[in-house]
Amino acid sequence: NKAIYILAIESSCDDTSASVMCNNRTLSNVVATQKIHEEYGGVVPELASRAHQQNIVPVVHQALALANIDKKQLSAIAFTRGPGLMGSLLVGTSFAKSLSLGLNIPLIEVNHMQAHILSHFIEEENYKIPTFPFIAMTISGGHTQIVLVKNYFEMEVLGESLDDAVGEAYDKSAKILGLPYPGGPLVDKYAQLGNPKAFPFPKPKVDGLNFSFSGLKTSILYFIQRETKNNPNFITENRNDICASIQHTIVNILMDKLKKAVKQTGIKQIAIGGGVSANSGVRKALADAENKWGWTTYVPKFEYCTDNAAMIGIVGYLKYKEHDFSDQDITAQARYIL
Ligand code: KG4
Ligand code: ZN
């Protein structure tokens, strides 16, 4: 088994990341997180692309240095073609194309959503690898998707959010409570100290396996406005209970759809990914589902949940084995369906 070295680049949103993989193992996975967006309470696309431009060369250098690999040893360059913010994608795409041309090695385009799912195939001690077919749920600040994964490259989207992503719902709820961006992890932290049944929020009615989170955000906003009118200290006095109630509602929404997906497909293997996979409520609900309903669940190592280049690298490796290479005239795609 020959050693294939893939340099992977990810720049779809606000993290600049580069990774060197040796076959299905990670040698390095460097992520430069852009702090600038915190001041604005969300990702500012123009600022993101400027920061990628500044970060990409040092991040790639660091990934090669940590892997102890010279660029002349690389077998191919993999990059995120989409979906994502166009200005951000362009930086990684142009960089990858130039490097592939300069080193005269193959170029491999990668779909970011496919990469979130295939990150489960990165070999890691103490992590099991899913067997086909399985159901993948990608939950992050940018995505909410349930996918039937038949094979490495045969995937079918069963449902997705019609409006806000689940991480966005967390972050927007956190903002209403006056918590700093990104507020998801804080809501999770306080939720663990509160009563999940204190304040019932309505669950959206959405057909099939699709999701909607914008209504929840609005009902939280109206609820907080109403309560703080009566009691200006309502949030501080009830912070944990409010967070626990929000978390309870969101986790229920996610689990209801997963249950539906299991029923619809007969598949009880569930793999999750994306930043919201870090959520304690989601993890607990999945562990309970293993015990109650005999599901087998897969939660990747945290560094592979959030946006990272190693997940692009594993897809690069899988495509390399198929000689599935891209031409130099390939372009970034902000909308790139699975
Ligand atoms: O995958 P990610 O790093 O970036 C993309 O959005 O692609 O996900 C970030 C999202 C944010 O919305 C953040 O608030 C949310 O994941 N998040 C969490 C937790 N940790 C991160 N949401 C709820 N509970 C958490 N523990
Ligand atoms: Zn992502």
UniProtKB/TrEMBL annotation:
InterPro entries in the record: ATPase_NBD, Gcp-like_dom, KAE1/TsaD, Peptidase_M22_CS, TsaD
Domain of life, per lineage: Bacteria
CC cofactor: Fe(2+)
Subcellular localization, as worded in the UniProt entry: Cytoplasm
Gene Ontology molecular function: iron ion binding; tRNA N(6)-L-threonylcarbamoyladenine synthase activity
Biological processes per GO annotation: tRNA threonylcarbamoyladenosine modification
Domain Gcp-like stretches: 26-313
Enzyme Commission number(s): 2.3.1.234
Similarity comment: Belongs to the KAE1 / TsaD family.
Described purpose of this protein according to its UniProt entry: Required for the formation of a threonylcarbamoyl group on adenosine at position 37 (t(6)A37) in tRNAs that read codons beginning with adenine. Is involved in the transfer of the threonylcarbamoyl moiety of threonylcarbamoyl-AMP (TC-AMP) to the N6 group of A37, together with TsaE and TsaB. TsaD likely plays a direct catalytic role in this reaction.
HAMAP family named among the record's database cross-references: TsaD (MF_01445)
Stated name of the protein: tRNA N6-adenosine threonylcarbamoyltransferase
Organism, as annotated: Arenibacter certesii
Lineage: Bacteria, Pseudomonadati, Bacteroidota, Flavobacteriia, Flavobacteriales
